[in-house]
UniProtKB/TrEMBL annotation:
<keyword id="KW-0131">Cell cycle</keyword>
<dbReference type="InterPro" id="IPR043129">
    <property type="entry name" value="ATPase_NBD"/>
</dbReference>
<dbReference type="Pfam" id="PF14450">
    <property type="entry name" value="FtsA"/>
</dbReference>
<dbReference type="InterPro" id="IPR020823">
    <property type="entry name" value="Cell_div_FtsA"/>
</dbReference>
<dbReference type="InterPro" id="IPR050696">
    <property type="entry name" value="FtsA/MreB"/>
</dbReference>
<keyword id="KW-0132">Cell division</keyword>
<dbReference type="GO" id="GO:0051301">
    <property type="term" value="P:cell division"/>
</dbReference>
<keyword id="KW-0472">Membrane</keyword>
<dbReference type="InterPro" id="IPR003494">
    <property type="entry name" value="SHS2_FtsA"/>
</dbReference>
<dbReference type="Pfam" id="PF02491">
    <property type="entry name" value="SHS2_FTSA"/>
</dbReference>
<protein>
    <recommendedName>
        <fullName>Cell division protein FtsA</fullName>
    </recommendedName>
</protein>
<feature type="domain" description="SHS2">
    <location>
        <begin position="5"/>
        <end position="193"/>
    </location>
</feature>
<comment type="subunit">
    <text>Self-interacts. Interacts with FtsZ.</text>
</comment>
<comment type="function">
    <text>Cell division protein that is involved in the assembly of the Z ring. May serve as a membrane anchor for the Z ring.</text>
</comment>
<comment type="similarity">
    <text>Belongs to the FtsA/MreB family.</text>
</comment>
<keyword id="KW-1003">Cell membrane</keyword>
Amino acid sequence: MNEYVVGIDIGSSKVCAAAGKLDKNGNIQIIGITSTPCNGLKRGIVVDIDSTAEGIKNTIEQLERMIDSKITEVYVSIPGEICDISSNRGVVAVSAGDREITQNDVDRVLKAAKIISVPSDKEIIGVVPEQFIVDGYDNITDPLGMCGIRLEVDAQIIMCQSTIISNLFKSINKAGLEGKGLVFQPMAVALAVLRAEEMKMGTLLLDIGAETTSVVLFRDNKLIFNDAIALGGNTITKDISLCLKLPQSESEKIKIKYGDLLKAQDDKDFKIKINANFDNVVEVKNSLLNEIIAARIEEIIYIIKKKLESLNYLDEVSGIVVVGGGIALTKGSIDMCKEILGKPVRIGVSEYIGAENTMHSSAVGVVKDIISSGKIVFKEEKVTKERKRNDAKSIWDDEKDDYEEDRGDGFFSKIKGFFTDFF
């Protein structure tokens, strides 16, 4: 029995955490959300276990004060750029005598899809079904209860290096917490900010972090493209520091406070006073600062455009949703994105009150993903017969328990955070 579900997103510059639960009407509520600085990760990989553990611990302590409850268990998002995705097909014969497809048949076909060659340094951490096929009829999202002889599944196999996951869980354990499971970050963010129709029509999700920018394309409720570029918010901070000869700490402050691409060509220029090294005060033109910021953001967007064009994905994009830190919130960045990519662009905002900040999208998505999967039973939760009828198998499976049954509902319940223990 659990009172809250806690999801954390460990990034290159900060750790975000969110706590949520079901209300009496069965709706998900985000009760608390917070973040603290952390520099123990670089591009999704733990480079300092102690620093990462300290950042996690500080964040959880703040969250505990917000929700007035002790936190011992957390679910963690895993960045898409450190995962490999392979496609495979699983095939099984329907076992029931009356040829009705049962949950056992779905479990077996998902296991069959995992029979692929896996490098020695990696492990399969989950399966995302794209479609089920019953006796040759494809595009089936839920085959339970249907009749057939042959059941197939086209699935995406998610793999990651075992050492990366082990170091991540060691950091969580060192913070005094138990890591209960992982959630594939692109799916968590999509669950938090994308609308149902956007998942079908072809939406590009740009998650701009400190060190990397994640580029994910969804169409027909499927993840069809997942990549990342090694540029992010910290790149702009370093540019400002180098060009204006300022400490990076001061460069980050003025980037957040004065960053405005709409003023890069503003005739009404003014100077910004900054405390540089050795208590020296220097003055920087606001227009120059924003020209530096604009140049790097423009480069990032053009790199994304070229990447999509080279793979013939740009024409499949009907809209763009941007989440992340400073770049997403920089005034004028959305207009620049519209101009360069030629697509409608919006800021990805969560539907939950108090969780509208785009930096918290991943943590909120983890909470929503786990709760909607039906894995957690709350003290006050009353499960109705209708919900039981809608329960379906989660395809994120426990590696050590031979992929035991987890239950959820809907498309995203089929990509739920999986329970695992790599050490």
